[in-house]
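Suppose you are handed a protein chain with no further information: no name, no annotation, nothing but its sequence. What can you learn? This example shows the usual starting point.
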Amino acid sequence: MTVGAWKAWLEKARTTHAVSEASLPVDADTPLFVTQDSRALEGARPGARAFVALPGNWHDGHSFLTEAHTSGARFFLVRENVAIPELMESDIIRCNDPISAWQDLARQWRETCNTAIIAITGSNGKTTVKEWLLQLIAPHTVAFGSPRSYNSQVGVPLALTELTPSHAWGIVEAGISRPGEMAKLASCIVPNVGVLTHLGEA
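A reasonable first move is to predict its three-dimensional structure. Written in structure tokens, the prediction is:
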């Protein structure tokens, strides 16, 4: 993902979310690393950094906003009506559901890249099939495979933001843990090809 893509999505987000935008001297083509894990920011590749604050059962990402800012994040996606520390010179988008907003951001970037996407789902075997397909496709074109087993509501947008316009093909896993989640992932991935590995007990 790039800073320009974030800015374009930010303009769209203004209609539904509260936005605080900083005049950051960052070129639109600068790569933007997006994560929900503040620990990943320190070792991130060169470029700009974005942090998505997600509430969880054990930890709340909003508790790590200062840490993320100290580690170089200047782009933030947070829940509305939650008190946050002062984050100097930062773009901040407040929304009701940070995960859904992140998925929307990832979908817009996926469409910007214009990459043909193969989505793989099933009770098991997703990662194995993904790696097989990647080995078959990679020698003939520029291909992307979602890292490790990034196939959840968080893992899919995390993977899609790693796409670049140079990728002709992308192979992305989709996994769910409760009813209704697949529709959200399908809307985020917008696949060109679907692969079902197996239906059964996971």
